[in-house]
């Protein structure tokens, strides 16, 4: 049986009639949870990376190397396609060329590239500015040339909607598609009618993103499907949900003085499954020496018992 490349699968999911829903991962564990929940692809979230790794907002502080290493770990941990967050290419068109080379080699099936100046920032906060459309076109062409796999997805994001207005966002979207982008991500569309117009006005698959507290109305995924969106990213809900869960747990401990009956916490066995302890046990049973098995498990029978306990 021939295995479909993840790049090819991601491109197909984008072009299929059914809208592609891509929640954002902020680390490997969240990517595993996204896969376990049945989603077909993962979006790496620079917002989430910055918050989880540095405790900082998404304002361009995280380096390309830091972004790359987290992305590489995510790509190796899940079996579904991963869309990398390449920010603005971390520089000019030449930097963008090498950014694409590195993220593709890390295992990403595609990459977000945005038309903001450096340092970039989250698309839903004030103070952002865009480079010229012409410069972004060159970045997209450089990215397209850099990708070794022709199906590697270039997701060109424009932040022009908030900076210059709707017409310019649509104009840029069409320019970026002609330059070689496979998907056009219009960031921070501020009205329902605006969402409909950018989807209709751009002659390419269009992506919209949804986040709590953002500029874009929280319409349903079904509505976006009906309006013709190819993809919806939900980039920050996972990290916001995680922060809320940790906050609730810590407040419970502070108030109750115990973890007994703590609500909303994943079970230990389920967590072991999530981090694939069963695979480790299997590898140990096949590759550890008998002496090491005796030391760790009091013999092979003990190892087999440990494997059964996982199920």
UniProtKB/TrEMBL annotation:
Pfam families registered for this protein in UniProt: PEP_mutase
CDD domains named in the record: ICL_PEPM
Database matches in InterPro entries: ICL/PEPM, Pyrv/PenolPyrv_kinase-like_dom, Pyrv_kinase-like_dom_sf
GO molecular function, a single term: oxo-acid-lyase activity
Name of the protein in its database record: Putative carboxyvinyl-carboxyphosphonate phosphorylmutase
Organism of provenance: Acetomicrobium hydrogeniformans ATCC BAA-1850
